Amino acid sequence: MNMAEEKKETKEAVESGVHNYTEEEAYVWPENPAVREHLEWFRGLKLGFMMHWAPVSQLGLMESWPLSDGDRDWSQVEIDWTDDIEEFKEQYLNLNKTFNPVKFRPDHWAKLARECGFKYVLFTTKHHDGFCMYDSKYSDYKITAPDCPFSQNKRANVVKEIFDAFRAEGMAVSAYFSKPDWHSDAYWHRAFGTAPTRNVNYDVKEHPELWEEFVQYTHSQLKELTSGDYGKIDALWLDGGWVNPRTDGQDIRLGEVVEEIRATTQPHLICCDRTVGGPYENIVTPEQSIPPRPMNIPWETCMTLGRTFSFHYDDEFKPTRQIVHTFLDIVSKGGNLALNITPQPDGQLPRKAVRILRQLGNWLSQNGEGIYNTHISQCKPYREVVYTAKEGKEYAFFMYSDQVWLHPYIYLDITRPVSGVRLLRTGESVPFSYDSVSGRLVLDTSKISTVGAEFADCFEVTY
User: Fold this and answer.
1) Would you say residue 21 has pLDDT above 50?
2) Which positions ≥6 away from 383 have C-beta within 8 Å?
3) Taking the CB of residue 60, how many other CB atoms lie within 10 A of it?
4) Contact between residue 117 and residue 360 where contact means Cβ atoms under 8 Å apart
5) Is 142 helix (H, G, I), strand (E, B) or coil?
């Protein structure tokens, strides 16, 4: 999804009475002990390497959404080489026949991600257009089909290659899967003409046999991805929140298949049924946004390094300082960041994006102790300072503006006695005292050098 689509969907959710999870009180904690334990572990990972990648990258165009005429006002604005939308759709659906990313090296991606401080991968196994980036037995519209040139490559089963490579680097795996499938004849059936909206293009009540076909197809693909052939799946990240029982009866009986998976192959499986709520939205996922206040529930912001989730030839990337400060805002509020980096059509990552990731990784190598496995601090953020906490320690992050300049005295929202303060960047002890009026902790940073400092400094406060 893009930001405009997310706003539209949120508006629809509010109007239809579906809770959009702006309030943590609506969250339903999983009852399964194995899932609950794995969820707590996953929350500590903090940084995910998210990737949208598909044949449409060849056009440098938004993924899937231009196929939806009901969203044409924002999804088809980039189509400027033809006025015939049906012609465009045919071109889109045939992109698999020219997709050949011969520079694809998932081991290079995984090594880069680990070196840059990422702890898990979130990859699109199938987006709304229905193209499978893995060897699905239930679809011919896939990366390993004979009509796709890349099917002859030894790394053709892209999802398996990526998941195996990231696990080899010690990272967790989150599998993106789209519940709607616009290529499936059981969802958008050709007998009913062009689909007017993103939803199923027939009446589910009038054609229950067709809908049941789609339900079984979806269950089969979900069980296929979690069967063990693709290894341990830590989280199942389900997009397309409009596919739910409240929307025209589009009930795929998700609980049925998730519980079967948990009972057979993945007992720990975290399920993220985005924007739907209930017991199978184990992680709340704000998109391109951050909650205004801390939330004591599992949540993960998915955000783009560039302008959109899909590859664009003229993409512009957020500066590293913005990424770091955004990440600190998220982590200090108890969340994870899934940062979307989109590969090129040839299989490589954009060099400008890689440079930013390297800078982020260098910063995390010095300050990661205050990031990973932390939770919300009781200290109140103020101006340049935000906090995290763990194991009897507080971590105070002083965020630099464009000019790296450290205040000679930093006041922290800490009034209880502390045993020491340490600057993570250098490892040096920091003198401190207590303000006689407010009782707050005051750090004397007048003699601390800012040589080598960038983006933010972290002060570890030990009690």
Assistant:
1) no
2) none
3) 15
4) yes
5) strand
The confidence band for 11, taking pLDDT boundaries of 50, 70 and 90, is very low
Kindly state the average pLDDT of the residues 169-182.
98
Instruction: Name 218's Cβ contacts closer than 8 Å, sequence gap at least 6.
Output: 179, 181, 252, 257
pLDDT band, residue 22 (cuts 50/70/90)? low
Q: What is the mean pLDDT of the chain?
A: 94
- d(C-alpha 112, C-alpha 354), whole Å: 8
**Residues near 116 by Cβ (< 8 Å), separated by ≥ 6?**
357, 358, 360, 361, 364
Tokens 């401190």 -> residue = 432
Long-range contacts of 295-300 (CB under 8 A, 24+ apart): 295/24, 295/333, 295/334, 295/335, 296/24, 296/334, 296/376, 297/24, 297/27, 297/29, 297/334, 298/39, 298/42, 298/43, 299/334, 299/335, 299/336, 300/48, 300/272, 300/335, 300/336, 300/337, 300/338
> Which of 257, 364, 428, 311 is closest to 61 using CA atoms?
311
| Cα(213)–Cα(228) distance, integer angstroms | 24
pLDDT digits (tens, 9 = 90+) for 316-355: 999 999 999 999 999 999 999 999 999 999 999 999 999 9
Q: Residue 261: which H helix or E strand, with range?
A: helix 254-264
Phi (first) and psi of residue 281, to 5 degrees:
-110, 75
pTM of the model: 0.94
Q: What is the pLDDT of residues 111-153, one digit of tens each?
A: 999 999 999 999 999 999 999 999 999 999 999 999 999 999 9
**154 CB-near residues (< 8 Å, 6+ apart):** none
Distances (CA, A) of 359 to 207, 209, 309, 406: 54, 53, 21, 20
Structure tokens at 253: 């009986």
Give the C-alpha separation, 50 to 47, whole Å: 9
